[in-house]
Specification:
Length: about 475
């Protein structure tokens, strides 16, 4: 049993990253070799996340099959992001192995978050992720925007952590436990009109508010556009994918294990903030000229779909939220991955207008962006269409007819700014020099084209989410 613990992905990555830091000291001039070792570490960790793992739930830590599969998805996502990041940093002449080691520490933080079966372990995982993101956001020391973004995220993140701790202290104070299962048993026995019940409600509200900040949900979204704009594109790619998946799983575990009997409290909150996120993200994106700010508001809107369907508290809504999370992560990976490969006047892409005439100079990359934008807009046969459709169907099945109409309306409005990007690429003329600095785009092509293939055969992803939901209910009961 003890030997098997050394093959848990979190432990493998922890030991591996320490060894890589030491190796990098002696291979300062061979960063490509060190990067290959990092890729090998991710591959080995991914293998052991789905092979040879013992599924059990400890008092404070969960190693179920459901979470092992999700860890594999997180590691695979990191592998793709590192692939994009390496080429991008080499081109910008800012390549440092520390960037990848810090990113791995953030990856470990996400894995601790989703495996936590205790509020204290959850807090430690969130802080490890947050500290890593502080460093990555401020990585580009030459940019004042990067420094500003790092300070903003640090201040707001510290406030969010304080709110989370206050919520945890309230739950602990009124239940006497920080273990998920014990909290669930105690909450079931608490009388509705008691002081304890009211205290737990306040605890849930504070914890939910803090997690909504980490998720980038309105009205806790104020940091998202500035941080996306100020960070390197590679950092933005990481920000828009892995932490979102981790926070979503935390939402799932918290609301469906310790706080399941208090559905009437948190479901209304999630529906409200989810709908608010869709409205704010869709409307505010209309006026954006910076491509990263545009995708930031797009992320706020997309996360609104996830939170809204999660708040329905039905099997359809639960599956729709997981389905949408996977689709959004794939789309965000492809969108930002393409931007990391393109430069304008020897600088990274910043404005939408920087993409003008891309179809004439690099038609293949123009097609890849076309696929990602159509998927984001929810236009068939892309997978984004099925993701939005399944959320709307879940709303209708739960008899939220007015909300479903409003969601369709916001989807139509949001299509405008996605089509605006396509219009710029195919119909605008350009004066600046645009180029692509990577001749090898196999991973990027597979990432982008998967949006089309999964859209044509959506039942493969649907079957995967159904299987994951069955596993989740198994560990929740």
């Amino acid at each position: 049993m003890i030997i098997n613990l050394f093959f848990i992905p979190e432990i493998l990555l922890s030991f591996g990253v320490m060894i890589i830091i030491l190796i990098d000291l002696f291979l300062q001039n061979y960063k490509a070799v060190t990067f290959k070792l990092i890729q090998l570490l991710l591959i080995v960790s991914a293998y052991y996340s789905i092979n040879g793992q013992i599924s059990f739930t400890h008092e404070s830590y969960d190693l179920s099959e459901f979470l092992n599969i999700l860890k594999f998805i997180l590691i695979l996502g990191s592998f793709i992001i590192f692939h994009y990041t390496y080429k991008h940093l080499v081109y910008l002449n800012t390549l440092k192995i520390e960037y990848f080691t810090i990113s791995i520490l953030g990856l470990i933080g996400t894995m601790i978050m989703i495996s936590a079966h205790s509020l204290l372990i959850l807090y430690l995982g969130i802080e490890l992720l947050s500290l890593s993101l502080y460093a990555l956001i401020g990585f580009n020391k030459k940019s004042s925007l990067s420094s500003e973004a790092a300070i903003k995220y640090y201040v707001l993140g510290a406030m969010s952590s304080g709110v989370l701790l206050f919520g945890i202290s309230l739950v602990y104070g009124f239940t006497g436990s920080i273990n998920y299962s014990e909290i669930a048993n105690i909450v079931d026995t608490v009388q509705i009109n008691s002081v304890e019940y009211l205290g737990i409600i306040f605890g849930i509200i504070f914890i939910t508010a803090s997690l909504c900040f980490k998720f980038g949900v309105a009205p806790f979204h104020m940091w998202v556009p500035d941080i996306y704009q100020g960070s390197l594109v590679s950092t933005t790619t990481l920000l828009s994918t892995l932490p979102k998946i981790a926070v979503f799983i935390v939402f799932l575990k918290l609301f469906y294990i310790p706080f399941l009997s208090m559905i009437n409290v948190w479901s209304d909150i999630l529906i409200f903030v989810g709908m608010l996120s869709i409205i704010i993200g869709s409307i505010f994106a209309l006026t954006q000229e910076n491509i990263k700010r545009l995708l930031a508001y797009s992320a706020i809107s997309n996360i609104g779909f996830i939170v809204l369907s999660l708040g329905l508290v039905t099997n359809d809504g639960l599956q729709a939220s997981l389905y949408y999370t996977i689709v959004y992560s794939l789309t965000a990976l492809a969108s930002f991955g393409i931007i990391t490969h393109i430069t304008c006047n020897s600088h990274g892409i910043e404005k939408i207008s920087d993409l003008a005439g891309l179809s004439k100079t690099h038609p293949y990359y123009a097609i890849l962006i076309l696929i990602t934008m159509l998927s984001s807009a929810g236009i068939p046969p892309m997978i984004g269409f099925h993701a939005k459709l399944i959320v709307i169907q879940a709303l209708i099945n739960s008899e939220y007819i007015m909300l479903s109409i409003l969601v369709v309306l916001m989807t139509v409005i949001s299509a405008y700014y996605y089509l605006k990007v396509i219009k710029t690429i195919y119909f605008d003329n350009r004066e600046e020099l645009i180029s692509v600095y990577s001749n090898s785009s196999i991973v990027l092509s597979l990432n982008s084209i998967s949006l089309l293939i999964l859209g044509i055969f959506p039942y493969y992803l649907f079957n995967l989410t159904s299987y994951l939901m069955d596993l989740l209910f198994t560990i929740s009961i």
